[in-house]
Write a structure and sequence with these properties.
The termini are far apart. By secondary structure, this protein is an alpha+beta fold. Helix 5 packs parallel to helix 8 and helix 8 runs antiparallel to helix 9. The chain has 2 domains: about 240 residues, Beta Polymerase, domain 2 (2-Layer Sandwich); about 55 residues. About 60% of the residues lie in helices and about 15% in strands.
Amino acid sequence: MQRTITLEKLTWIDVQDPDNETLQVLKEKYGFHELDVEDCLTENQRSKIDEYSDYLFIILHFPYQDKRRQRIMAEEVDIFIKNDVVITIHWGLLKPLIDLYDDAEKNAAKRKELMGKTSGYLLYEVVDHLFYGLFPLLDQIEGNVTTLEQEAFSLTGQRDLLKEILISKKNIISFRRTMAPLRTVIAQMEHKNKKFLPESLEVYFDDVLDKVEKIWNNLENLKELIESLQDTNESIISHTTNNVIKTLTVFSVVMLPLNLLAGLYGMNVELPGGAQPAMFFYISGGMAALLLLMLFFFKIKRWI
């Protein structure tokens, strides 16, 4: 699906779910390189920025939440920028970009704000809006980690948190993997062809870079926190397991002499005192005394 907005001399073309035919038409009309068109149709491209004499080609990847799989995935946005046109190409999974275009299409004031200057300023607005849309996702991950931390240290917590900790850890790793190359690309933007990104826009892209670094620093903190939380959870599991094993071992050791005594008097041979009617009570009392003596000994040794 291709949509177009034009304001004075500037045009914004948004292509959602691109196909080869649509991209070939744009290639012929604006003189794009065939390798750039090929990159637009190829998945798993790394974020980058290519500079040509009359346009820039930018590939960016932004994380988004796959609610069905509860995973952080990456969505690609390809951008062509010339003096009079900005073309955004994506697969419709980034709601911030779709919302920004819809707002510009329906709201004349917003359209004037976005497209009333230069193509470079429109690029800034698009990129800035996409990065701004990452903060709710980052807050959601941070909230999940905080909840896991509170539950891990809760004295009443009985739920196994390992799976949820590993899911959060994988999401943070995926987020960081997507953000790492973006830091370089955004830093390069302000130093590219001044025909599209004049010096007056440097302060704007510095603002975008500040957002990127803030997101990255938060991810670094979350990475350290989730790793510490995983170590803590494993320590708690290990401690709980050791307590269970210790309790079972105490029961086994305490019952061993009692079983020996019961087995000894259970043999079908003559034993001392076997003919006395009260011998059962003597043996039971002796077993109880032995049990208490062993428990007292374990207590003194601080084994229980």
